[in-house]
Design a protein that fits this description.
Length: 312
């Protein structure tokens, strides 16, 4: 389908303050009919992120920042970012190089998916009521990408060691920088691993994953913004279950008794239910929206272990 033409904007919008510049940017973004779904869901929030980044403003003092005056150079920098967001259909987080996950700042590059999993909400509550946070000693995050879930788990479970695995060496480099930026090198270990191949015979209290789960036919229909992300972070075979299947098949060998498996499968929820109809998945609900995340107790994983291996 041909793209709508990029609406022309005056090279120097007539604005005097940060608030006016954000309002101008939001109007421009709305007219461009972009797709939102990479950490924000509306043009106003994206405009705010782009303008704050262009002007080097801190998000923790936003109220004061809105009233600040803007000069021509600052307006030009912000206008350039807004223009790239529209012209290149690139998620804002790749333009600013950062986003927030469960309240933690995370560096992102096009080597990693832009963090947006509803699992953030679980991390914020220490996976309550599914687990006793004080007893969690080992966590495995499969497909860590930027490291966002592993890092949020390290904050949620202060006594835990976290293994942050990914099959992509480029993603692991970004995860390493994020782990370092949060001073978590002693507790979060980035590991190159194809699902469980890099973790030996280790067992975990929690295995958590936001793996790729987009079916091949849906990949082709995704808005342009998603094609800026690494394909390996999204595409998972014909039904979207290629990696999920392997996570389920190996979970019994890597969960502690009393442990918990949490996996995001998004819109592939129906395919999961159809593939394993006898498994008592608990589908989690989130206050901030999103879904398609199941929890499964280690005892149920153990009961279903042959079933999972047979289906693999
Ligand atoms: C949907 S992204 C999630 C990234 C991050 N956890 C997040 O929530 O933003 C999936 C990640 O799984 C990784 N991945 C894909 N196949 C994998 C495999 N077989 N084993 C381990 N990681 C894999 C990708 O490289 C990507 O970083």
């Amino acid at each position: 389908m041909p793209r709508p033409p990029v609406p022309r904007a005056p090279p120097h919008p007539d604005v005097a303050t940060v608030a006016e510049l954000i309002a101008w940017a939001a109007r421009r973004l709305s007219r461009a009919r972009l797709h939102y779904g990479h950490g924000t869901d509306n043009p106003r929030d994206e405009a705010g992120a782009l303008v704050f980044h262009a002007l080097g403003l801190a998000h923790d003092d936003a109220a004061r920042a809105y009233a600040l005056p803007v000069d021509a150079a600052a307006i030009a920098r912000a206008a350039d970012l807004v223009d790239r967001r529209i012209r290149e259909r690139v998620p804002s987080a790749y333009l600013t190089g950062r986003t927030w996950f469960a309240g933690h700042e995370i560096e992102v590059t096009p080597d990693v998916l832009v963090p947006r999993s509803p699992i953030a909400e679980l991390c914020e509550t220490g996976f309550a009521p599914w687990t006793d946070a004080a007893r969690v000693r080992r966590v495995l995050d499969i497909g860590t990408g930027s490291g966002c879930i592993a890092i949020a788990c390290a904050y949620a479970f202060p006594a835990a060691q976290v293994d942050a695995t990914d099959i992509s060496p480029a993603a692991l480099e970004v995860a390493k920088r994020n782990i370092g930026a949060h001073g978590l090198q002693g507790r979060v270990s980035p590991l190159l691993s194809d699902v469980y191949s890099g973790v030996g015979d280790r067992r975990y209290d929690i295995i958590v994953s936001n793996p790729p789960y987009v079916p091949e036919a849906e990949m082709r229909a995704l808005p342009s913004e998603y094609h800026r992300e690494p394909r390996i972070g999204l595409a998972a075979g014909e039904r979207g279950l290629d990696v999920v299947r392997r996570i389920l098949a190996g979970a019994d060998e890597h969960l502690e008794p009393g442990g918990l498996l949490v996996v995001e499968v998004g819109d592939s929820q129906a395919a999961v239910q159809e593939s394993w109809p006898r498994v008592p998945f608990t589908w989690l609900e989130f206050e901030r929206g999103g879904g398609g995340v199941f929890a499964l107790a280690a005892a149920d994983v153990h009961r279903c272990r042959r079933y999972f291996r047979r289906e693999s």
